[in-house]
Design goal:
This protein is α/β, with parallel strands linked by helices and about 260 residues long. The protein is about 45% helix and about 15% strand. The longest helix has 24 residues. Bound molecules: farnesyl diphosphate.
Length: about 260
């Protein structure tokens, strides 16, 4: 996991054997429930247990940041009772696990839009972040009411407002200064993005931050996920040759 995020730090990242940032699109809850003749919400509940197992397993697998896609800006289109269940699950997860996570040195961050969330959800988000803000061992980022395009648009608006106030100059904008306005600004870019359930799409997840991420697609449905599946994804990542637009060191030597 690199200490910094900007494109100029690509070589730092390449050289780094620091802990990884793994991001996961937790997909397949509905299909898992359907296979069992259960309502979809039970798939989401089983998904919370998979999340707990994965967070636990990640901490002993050289992962420093785990980002999970809990609720997208597009998920509001789902039936009201399913939206309500996903909101309740975030709240219940924080209620049940916050103290344990805080004592284990986990920093919890929620990325995404705060607008549009009910007061009780906004309160648990703030509580989880405040309670764990001093922790540095491991970061759990939950993308909630998050969309990659929305996050980029919000960042662009925030920057434009600074320009309007005379606090920044449009001509000075670079990739490095722009990404400080993203809700992911405090974390490094993901090294590895995993999607479960066999789907092979990025679905508006970490669009800016995925620039050099390795993508791994696994056939397992999210409620069946856990430390073993995570280990398999990381093993696949380790077999990849990350070049960040450059060439492999061996090829430089051959070319002279
Ligand atoms: C995709 O499965 C999953 C989601 C939209 C939500 C992920 C949520 C959880 C794992 C619950 C825990 C969340 C938090 C925030 C604690 P899907 O329903 O689209 O599955 P399908 O494609 O099989 O229908």
């Amino acid at each position: 996991m690199p200490a910094t995020t900007g494109l100029q730090n690509v070589s730092d990242r390449e050289a780094s054997d620091q802990r990884l940032h793994v991001a996961i699109i937790m997909d397949g809850n509905g299909r898992w429930a359907k296979q069992r003749g259960m309502p979809r919400v039970l798939g989401h509940r089983a998904g919370v247990n998979a999340l707990k197992r994965t967070v636990e397993g990640a901490q002993s697998q050289n992962v420093g940041v785990l980002t999970v896609f809990g609720f997208s800006t597009e998920n509001w289109r789902r039936p009201a009772h399913e939206v309500s269940e996903l909101m309740s699950l975030l709240k219940a997860y924080v209620e049940s696990d916050l103290e344990r996570l805080a004592k284990a040195g986990v920093r919890v961050r929620i990325i995404g839009r705060r607008t549009g969330l009910s007061a009780d959800i906004a309160e648990v988000i703030e509580r989880a972040e405040r309670r764990t803000e001093g922790n540095t061992q491991f970061t759990l980022q939950v993308a909630f009411n998050y969309g990659g395009q929305a996050d980029i648009a919000d960042a662009a608006r925030a920057f434009a407002e600074k320009v309007e106030r005379g606090e920044a100059k449009a001509a000075d904008l670079t990739e490095e200064t722009f990404e400080r306005f993203l809700s992911t600004a405090s974390a490094p870019h993901p090294d590895l993005i995993v999607r479960t359930s066999g789907e092979r799409r990025i679905s508006n997840f970490l669009l800016w931050e995925c620039a050099y991420a390795e993508l791994v697609f696994q056939d397992v449905l999210w409620p069946d996920y856990g430390p073993e599946a995570l280990a398999a994804a990381i093993a696949e990542y380790r077999r990849r040759d990350r070049r960040y637009g450059g060439v492999a060191a061996d090829d430089v030597a051959v070319a002279g």
